[in-house]
Amino acid sequence: MQFDIVMPLTLFLVTLVSLFLNQKTEDKLKSRLEGEFGVRDVLLLVAAMVGMIVIIAFVKDIASPLLILFLFSYSTLLFTFGYVFSKNRWYVAVIAPIVFLTLFFFLRGTDIWKLYLVNIYGLIFAVLIVLYLAGLFSWKSVFYFAGIMTALDIVLVLVTGTMVQAAQTTQKLELPVMVSLPIFPVLMERYAGGFMSLGLGDFFFAGLLAVHTFKKYGRKLALVSMVAMTVSFFVFLAVLLSLDPMPFPGTLMIICGWAVIVLPIEIRRRKPPQPAQNTIS
């Protein structure tokens, strides 16, 4: 049997860091962000994500606009966090995006970028995206987002392959949109030197579920749900590696573990109380 412990452990650690930092940063970020996502907002967000994926996958000559869009988005994210936590000092906030852009343009194409920095920045952005967006969701909108996104992920990966095409396009540009780590332990020769990749969207998905489970049910259940998500991801990954490796929806691998822990509690909580039985003695 072939299995990998590196990517599941990385998923757990990124989710744990996101959960810990969210408690420290949420109040500061809320002063910058107003309101919460309703059902309509979730649908618009998902539609925008799917639209972007389709454009990346099928539009020719997308490389330059895509590069500009992602670099601008990443730089803005770094600047926003730098600005908030440097107490509105823009001259401090610009340091992080300048360093990122400098490293990207000067080291892109080198092994230092492709093997190390792209993954380091991928992990950093995975955490920052959770911190930035998690506060916009309510418990109800998390359920809608998780269900719709998982269903669409299944279609885009297993049915149409659109997600795979989009991932290949962005990887060619060497943008930090995925984290690629070596498979360990290597028990079969065909995996020697092999890497496992997971998109930032999947890290965000796990972080979002963990953060809102913490808000709703507290630290203990949040940690239990994180362990369950990691175990579920590990099992799915082991099956895929042992049979015939293929692209598979990361959201499905993650949500199965979370649902086993959270859904029974939600069902019991929402179940109307039984009326008391009156007895005559």
Report on the architecture of this protein.
- With 281 residues, the chain is mainly alpha-helical.
- The chain has one domain.
- Helix content is 72%, strand content 4%.
- The protein contains eleven helices and two strands; from the N terminus they run ααααααααββααα.
- The protein has helices at 6-30, 39-58, 63-85, 90-93, 95-107, 111-133, 139-159, 162-172, 200-217, 219-242, 250-270; strands at 178-182, 195-199.
- It has a two-stranded antiparallel sheet with strand order 1-2.
- The longest helix is centred in the N-terminal third of the chain and has 25 residues, at 6-30.
- The chain starts with 5 loop residues before the first helix and ends in an 11-residue tail after the last helix.
Topology:
Layout: H1 6-30, H2 39-58, H3 63-85, H4 90-93, H5 95-107, H6 111-133, H7 139-159, H8 162-172, E1 178-182, E2 195-199, H9 200-217, H10 219-242, H11 250-270
Antiparallel strand pairs: 1-2
Structure summary, number of beta strands? 2
Q: How far apart are the termini?
A: 64 Å
What is the average per-residue confidence, as pLDDT, rounded to a whole number? 89
Q: Which residues sit in consecutive blocks of at least 5 with pLDDT less than 50?
A: none
Main traits of this protein?
281 residues; globular
Concise account of the structure shown:
This protein is mainly α and 281 residues long. It is built from eleven helices and two strands, in the order ααααααααββααα.
